[in-house]
């Protein structure tokens, strides 16, 4: 007779190997499973400013986050994409469910606020409703507000903010009421990180510098670590 161990441990591991054979890895027990979503890809370039293409930046940063996360214990990164292709919101949501993600981080580069804005912005599910309890413009996010995910998302964004502030302080900060359909459909804590302002020449320099990208990735991993320490 096969042991319970076989069915609870070995079988699921093989099942995961079949579903996620490339680049996704298997989470060690007790790891925080983080889906990193380098937004855009394929025909969807995202923000383009001079030679800067947002889809390329997001992917490069995402891969560096995965690399940096390998240096620390307890974080397992699952990428929504590792090459230049577009992934639908439905596929991202399904992936997060399939890998039993603990949280989801979408990567973008910002284009808003004019060329003087610098730094980063963050959005999380229920963001607008939480900021303004009387507001009803974000009906798609309403149901998320009562969810525990919101509290965890807020917590994660706070750690992320502290970690990022050291390498990429923000100025000219504004809050944008951007539609974030992927977050609305997730039932795990999530946030959208808009790193830097592609239309700001100084930020663009940071965004295209590989060393600065790595520093950003390392601080994002630090934010995840802090969050993991509080929730795992
Ligand atoms: Zn974007």
Tell me the count of domains.
1
Q: Give the structural class.
A: alpha/beta
What's the helix count? 9
Please trace the helix and strand order, writing H or E for each element. HEEEHEHEEHHHHEHH
Give the amount of beta strand, in percent.
15-25%
How many β strands by DSSP?
7
Unreliable segments of 5+ consecutive residues: 15-25, 128-146
**What overall geometry do the principal axes of the alpha carbons give?**
globular
CATH architecture: 3-Layer(aba) Sandwich
Ligand roster: zinc ion
End-to-end gap: 34 Å
Just give the CATH class.
Answer: Alpha Beta
Radius of gyration computed on alpha carbons: 18 Å
What's the name of the CATH homologous superfamily?
Answer: Zn-dependent exopeptidases
- Side by side, the strands of the main sheet go 4-1-5-7-6
Fraction in helix: 40-55%
Main beta sheet, described?
A: 5 strands, mixed
- Overall residue-averaged pLDDT value: 76
User: Could you name the CATH topology?
Assistant: Aminopeptidase
Question: Brief description of this entry?
Answer:
46% of the residues lie in helices and 16% in strands.
Tell me what the structure shows:
With 232 residues, the protein is α/β, with parallel strands linked by helices. The chain has a single domain (33-123, 133-231), classed as Aminopeptidase (3-Layer(aba) Sandwich). The protein is built from 9 helices and 7 strands. The chain has helices at 4-19, 54-69, 89-98, 127-131, 142-145, 148-167, 181-185, 201-208, 210-231, and strands spanning 32-38, 48-49, 52-53, 75-79, 103-110, 120-123, 190-197. The strands form 2 sheets. A 5-stranded mixed beta sheet has the order 4-1-5-7-6, with helices on both faces. A two-stranded antiparallel ribbon has the order 2-3. A hairpin with a 2-residue loop joins β2 and β3 (52-53). α2 packs across α9 and α6 (148-167) packs antiparallel against α9. The protein is globular. The two termini are 34 Å apart. The relative contact order is 0.18. The model is unreliable at 15-25 and 128-146 (pLDDT under 50). The protein binds zinc ion. Zinc ion binds next to loops.
């Amino acid at each position: 007779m096969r042991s319970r161990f076989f069915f609870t441990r070995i079988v699921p591991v093989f099942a995961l190997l079949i579903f996620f054979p490339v680049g996704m890895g298997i989470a060690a027990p007790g790891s925080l499973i983080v889906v990193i979503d380098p937004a855009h890809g394929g025909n969807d370039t995202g923000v383009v400013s001079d030679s800067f293409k947002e889809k390329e930046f997001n992917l490069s940063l995402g891969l560096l986050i995965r690399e940096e996360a390998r240096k620390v214990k307890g974080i397992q990164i699952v990428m929504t994409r590792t090459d230049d292709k577009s992934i639908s919101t439905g596929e991202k949501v399904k992936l997060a469910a399939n890998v039993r993600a603990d949280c989801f981080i979408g990567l973008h580069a910002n284009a808003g606020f004019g060329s003087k804005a610098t730094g980063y912005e963050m959005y999380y599910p229920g963001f607008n409703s939480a900021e303004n309890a009387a507001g009803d413009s974000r009906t798609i996010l309403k149901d998320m507000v009562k969810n525990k995910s919101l509290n965890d998302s807020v917590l994660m964004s706070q750690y992320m903010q502290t970690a990022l502030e050291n390498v990429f302080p923000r100025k000219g900060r504004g809050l944008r009421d951007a539609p974030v359909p992927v977050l609305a459909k997730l039932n795990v804590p999530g946030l959208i990180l808009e790193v830097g302002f592609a239309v700001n020449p100084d930020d663009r320099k940071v965004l295209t510098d590989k060393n600065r990208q790595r520093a950003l990735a390392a601080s994002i991993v630090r934010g995840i670590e802090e969050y993991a320490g509080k929730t795992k």
